[in-house]
Amino acid sequence: MFTTYSEALEWIHARLRLGIKPGLSRMEWMMEKLGHPERKMKTVHIGGTNGKGSTVTFLRNILEAAGYSVGTFTSPYIEQFNERISVNGKPISDEEILELTNVIRPLADELEETELGGPTEFEVITAMSFYYFANVNQVDIVIYEVGLGGRFDSTNIIQPIASIITNIGLDHTNILGHTYGEIGFEKAGIIKDRIPTFTAVKNEDAIKVIKERAEKKHAPLLRLNQDFTITSHSPQANGEMFTLISDDQTLEQLEISMIGQHQTENAALAVMAAQSINQDGDFSINEESIRTGLKKAYWPGRFEILSDRPLVIIDGAHNDEGIKVLVQELSTRYSTYSIHIVFAALKDKKLDQMIAQLDSIADEISFVSFDFPRAAQAKDLFAISKSKNKVMEDNWDTHLSEIINSLGYNQILVITGSLYFISEVKLYLSEFLKNNRISL
Predict the structure, then answer these.
(1) Which residues pair with 245 in a beta bridge?
(2) Considering the entire predicted model, what is its pTM?
(3) Domain 5-296 carries which CATH code?
């Protein structure tokens, strides 16, 4: 038995040594031992390559605005570990993490002795969330974000009332496949029998296998630009405005407070899912709740402005598709600015493509290292870059401080890359900017 939060967290993180082990057998084993808590709740399942976390928060805020208690399971965390299991946006307490770890630890030890092997860190946390929402804090609905892929992801033992697939890109190709069709097949694994599914996937190879899966499962499939459409998009100073048209209704001038055209797609998926949930006899979601929820929704680390003067932005663009969206937004919103980019990434990403895109937009670019098992080294990132104005630094914190102190008018600092890196950066910069009396 663990007696402190730090002991529990250390045990959880130590399971990173087991890496990623796709498959549902260990989760099914643990759920059987726990009396199948995953069957005792209403859920929504959200998969995709990028935009999952934003879509979770849009839908959560809509449901909250309608008066419901909403649990969420997301990864990775940005500000604190506990936020991975939250209720109405509030992370569960240290004491609850300790309690849940003491429930799952004996099962993990017992499972270790079987031919299935011990559960991974992600499997442990997923099991904790199921137990929590079924037995500790029962809520009206829980939104589950897929960790990796879909078909064999540890969250894929739920029977949701709606499923969402945000988009599909060539990420985690060593596990999910090297083509859009192969990755689409894995993502489509969350589609369940007769459960409505909403998607913003545009790639033809990916959508083909998603359609095949939906047809096989007799699941209604509603697609962006076919069954619902975004029109009249207009960038705002602190967000976006758009109109959403579907067969059922037209919602004009919807406002969101997250920046980027791609966020209008995530918001549209959340609205469509909310309208589907509204058909469930236990929920009543009106237009006012949709508008209020969308406007209120906030997700840290996604084109987040930490300071206006000097202008400092963090963005967890951790793959090729994410970088492409970031570059588009910087080109649109800050075309007259001198842009200094600081980049750190995991070494298993398509680094050459990501760095080439950043080189194209950056007036200056810094490559840094950070403390994480799969992190790429600054010197390796530096070697890939073809920028004429590049540097590499091992101490990212002091480097960021120096850049911020030197920023002048019409200059912008953008820190991007791995979400694990962004998590560390946000914690550090929030304190630095506050202590140096720089506007937040």
Answers:
(1) 229, 250
(2) 0.91
(3) 3.40.1190.10
